[in-house]
Amino acid sequence: MVPGEKITRAEALRWMAGIFEEPVENVRADTPRDAIKAWDSLGILSLMAGLDERFDVRLTETELPGLKSVRDVLNILEKKGCLVGE
Amino acid sequence: MLSYDKMKVYLAGGLGITVAELERSCRPARESDLGGILSLRREVKGGEVRDDEKYLRWRFFDNPRKTGGEVPYLVFVVKGAIVGGLGLESIDILEGGAVHPAVRCFDIMARPDYEGRGIGAFLNMAALGRFATALVMNTNRKSTNLVGKLYHRMEDLQTCVLIAGTRAIISKRLGLGPLGPAAAVLPDALLGIGRRVRRRRVPRELAFRAIERFGDADDWTGPACADGRICARRDGQRLNWRFLDNPRRTYRALGVHDGGAMIGYVVCGLGPAREDGAREGVIADWMCAASPAAGRPALLALLFQEASRRMIAEGAEVVRCLTSDRESRAALAKNGFFVRRREACTFFVQSSDPELKKILTAPGRWFVNGFDNDAD
Q1: In chain A, count of helices (H) and strands (E)?
Q2: Which distant-in-sequence residues (6+ apart) come within 8 Å of B191 by Cβ?
Q3: What ipTM does this complex have?
Q4: For FRET with B248, which of A22, A68, B9, B81 sits at 20 to 30 Å CA-CA?
């Protein structure tokens, strides 16, 4: 892993599936947070650690409450310039 | 899994505070925190909870077991407000003649506007950091996954249920309304015949008597754990506090005597009517040692028979009982109880001592029941 690396949306979905230990097919852009069992209070900290370690992205106090679906995480990655292509 | 130190970094970041501030945020509750905890509970539960202050005082603030004046409740404070909390109960685990201090963790909560930031995981880790051995039971759908990652999941407890009457079921669930009582006459008569057929004769040497208070110095755990079972200590002081002083449910204790000596007890309670109107009885706890008049399995069956009989006489249409062990389930089955699988109850154990963890997580040794559950 290279901090600050760029990945495609498909790779981002696979990466999130790994963080939450979900089958890849269960993690789509429109998947809500509640549909992912491991996206609980430990899951959010794991996601934050993953974003920091892999993409050098540190979620802030104001960004956290907005994370309600996989798409919200993808939007953050996009905003921080971590997504490339399709 | 994420280490505790890393967890602190990200939780602090998500809350907009430093790690040093975060470490100060989590502390045992003080007497002055009662109001803050009540507000937290109101926000989490979405309104006023009946007798909540009475409950908090009984369970945490006026608990005779609180050690060193420390309230057995962890609070998580951000910007002066209590935004998270975790209930604790210190217990002694008895196992093979050894006593292991431990803590039960329950009632974890985070204020809705702080949900999803990691406070629940952090409070769990904080408890595991403070106490060498911890137990959790009866997790909900949301917390089972989290607790399962931090603790070792044991075999679920089973809920055994006895249907003693059908009036409420027929009236409400089948939508028969006022015709329900008439329609219930026949099934209720059949259920009554079933109970009479199953009824065991109580040996002449045995007598059941109500227990007003348990003797503070009595300890009922020794005989029950002599055969290698693991369980939390039940001394008189704990039993009085847990059941007879409980503000949430009126429990009654019944002792079984052989000659002059009390050789066992059962604690049961009748709850308020359910949504369908049925009154529900609960058999919460029991312990007994074999006596010359009856072996333990026979005594257990008699204890359950007597407890159910009294609750049914007082109007219970359903009697339920949470069990972890086969011996109790067999004794309940002899009284017409059946296992309701969809009401299984989770149970988790964790210990920082690897040797002890190995012992405590061995399958089939725990004796756990409603005594260990914080829900009344």
Answers
A1: 3, 0
A2: B163, B164, B165, B166
A3: 0.90
A4: B81
* Helix or strand run (H / E) with residue B281: strand B279-288
Q: How far apart are CA B184 and CA B121, in angstroms?
A: 49
**A3 pLDDT tier (thresholds 50, 70, 90):** low
Q: Nearest CA to B313 among B170, B165, B161? A: B165
pLDDT at B166: 86
Q: Which residues of B touch A48 (CB under 8 A)?
A: 10, 13-14, 118
What DSSP element (H or E) covers A44? helix A41-55
C-alpha A38: how far from chain center: 13
Distance in angstroms (rounded) separating the CA atoms of residues A38 and B30: 33
Residue type, B179: L
Would you state the structure tokens that stand for residue A38, as one six-digit string?
């491991």
Closest CA to B123 of A62, A37, A41, A19: A41
B150 and A42 within 8 Å at the Cβ level: the answer is yes
Cα–Cα distance, B95 to A3 (Å, whole number): 49
CA angle centred on B212, ends B206 and B216, rounded to 5°: 100
What are the pLDDT digits (tens) for B225-240?
777 899 999 999 999 9
pLDDT of residue B277: 72
Of B30-39, B117-126, B213-222, B300-309, minimum mean pLDDT range: B213-222
Between B57 and B271, residue with greater pLDDT: B57
- State which residue of chain B sits closest to A62, comparing Cα positions: B14
* Chain A positions in Cβ-Cβ contact with residue B122 (cut-off 8 Å): 41, 45
